[in-house]
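Sequence design from tokenized structure. All designs in this work follow the same two-part layout: the structure record, then the generated sequence. An example of the structure record is given first.
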């Protein structure tokens, strides 16, 4: 009998990373809401809230080995990429731009790449699932012949 391994699979490890990133965005939302002008805060809080929701959904689905993690992972990748681009494009030259570039390089773009990779890779369940075509002579369980 083979020993049971309790080491996390790559899916659960990735799920933890996504959930942690989604949870880390929650206090950031409060910071943005409290420090930015109202019109700016509404846009940034909405974008980051969508990111958090997508990350938390994809991460929790990965943790539960749910093959439906791909769509929220794809959404998170697009949102993170857009966030990084808009942050850098709208930042003022100098320390503000340096911070925007650092956040993009250290956090947003690597996380977007992970999400894109998770969205693109086939799931084990879907890779093994074969499509079964019903033929006219096939009967379902519990049906009676005609």
């Amino acid at each position: 009998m083979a020993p049971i391994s309790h080491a996390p699979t790559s899916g659960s490890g990735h799920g933890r990373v996504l959930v942690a990133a989604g949870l880390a965005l929650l206090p950031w939302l409060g910071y943005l809401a409290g420090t930015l002008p109202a019109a700016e805060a509404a846009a940034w809080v909405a974008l980051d809230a969508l990111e958090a929701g997508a990350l938390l959904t994809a991460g929790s689905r990965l943790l539960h080995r749910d093959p439906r993690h791909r769509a929220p992972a794809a959404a998170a990748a697009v949102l993170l990429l857009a966030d990084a681009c808009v942050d850098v494009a709208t930042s003022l030259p100098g320390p503000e731009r340096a911070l925007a570039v650092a956040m993009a390089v250290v956090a947003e773009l690597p996380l977007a790449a992970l999400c894109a990779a998770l969205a693109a890779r086939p799931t084990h369940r879907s890779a093994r699932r074969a499509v079964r075509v019903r033929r006219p002579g096939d009967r379902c369980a519990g049906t009676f012949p005609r």
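The helical segments are 10-35, 38-63, 70-90, 95-120, 124-128. We note this feature because it recurs in several other targets discussed in the main text.
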